[in-house]
Amino acid sequence: LCAILLCCGPMLTCCRRVTIFPAVVTLPEGDKATFFCNISMENDSGSEYSLNWYKETNHSQNQKTAEISRYKPMTETEKYRLINHTAFFEIEILNLHQNDSGSYYCGLITFFEPDKVMESNRSQLIVTAAPQMNATDEPEMEEGNPSEHVKAMLLGILLLAGVAVLLIFGYLISMYRRGDVQKPLSENMPAEEKPSVVSISTVDYGVLEFQRDQHSPVPPKAWPVEQTEYATIIFPEEKPLTPER
């Protein structure tokens, strides 16, 4: 079996081919770059292999940054994330910085030739400086979602409208009450509560003194005993006064 694998291994290896795309990616700092490595496996015997992710610097030094095996679904580091989709591998470079710019490629290492790396073509990553937002620039509104600024404006308008309605209502009430105070008391009082004129017949008693004629003096002894007479005076019945209509 070992002899067969040693003889057939190079042949199976030659049937594999590694490609990477897209060829050029340009993104600003802080973004995420995504590449795809495709491995053609014609006459695949199910042999084990692993995929390495390299960064090429100065066209001479190759730096291995991540690795994933054939049957591992995903591997992730602080900077890289490799996802196995069976037919291809997805490589993500997270939180881009300008020093991440460079040339990247995939390397396939098979079970038969662990010391030999089958390299893919190169992809270029260009990381630009993050765009600076001016103080006068306003953030763009997301489609379908109103911004917090619009929500705050609508809430303020509703509050102002409510305050205005309350002020108008209070003013009308105060004017209505002021008009009632200025009216005469007789107009404000209901008809049934107006004081009615009651006619009461009264009898008053008085003392009337009658003086005799002073021109005919009479001796004191001949004066008769003074007498007091009483008289009854009946006043006519008062009629109730009715307001003029």
Automatic annotation (TrEMBL):
InterPro entries: Ig-like_dom, Ig-like_dom_sf, Ig-like_fold, Ig_sub, Ig_V-set, PDCD1. Keywords: Membrane, Signal, Transmembrane, Transmembrane helix. The chain crosses the membrane at residues 152-173. Gene3D superfamilies: Immunoglobulins (2.60.40.10). GO terms for biological process: negative regulation of immune response; positive regulation of T cell apoptotic process. GO terms for cellular component: external side of plasma membrane. Pfam families: V-set. SMART domains: IG. Residues 1-15 form the signal peptide. Residues 10-106 form the Ig-like domain. PANTHER family: PROGRAMMED CELL DEATH PROTEIN 1 (PTHR15264:SF2). This is PDCD1 protein.
